[in-house]
Design brief:
Length: 181
Amino acid sequence: MNDKKFKYNPFVTEVMTAREVHLTEPDTEGEYADGKYKTEATACKEYTERLKAEIQAVADTHFARKKNVHLPWWKTKEGVIAFKFKSPRKQPKLTDAKGRLLNAGTVIRGGTQLRIAGVIAAWEKGEKRGVSLFPDAVRVIKLSEDFDPCAAFGPPEDGFDGSARARNDDGTRSRQAPRDP
């Protein structure tokens, strides 16, 4: 896309809840993978309405008499509005709540509370036009913890110890313990 077809308006969100997160690694797997850094995010009803109005104002300013303008939100199957933030070329700068860069290896998951700064971009390419949310920086307010389904079992118990199982010559685990010759 030619950058001359873009018109930018800066934005900073209030705290939102991330979902379908690809901010630490680009989206490269699955049917809709596009190799871009992106996330969806939801917010409280009041802020959702204000952000929709801000985006709609940009669309109305640049495409007042145009039809079929793509907007970066939709209603989820849960009935809430989700916004799509997608970086066209680069990974957004990722920081903690204090503004310090995140440590390498920190993974932002769905459920993380965050704020996003970037630009609302009005774009037009041929007959297509729309408004996109390009994230430049993400501030993690509360990192969603990794879910451990085995935590429900509690502390270790007496019984079978899988680490004591025999290994084959190639290092793989055998199905049966080796027999004495």
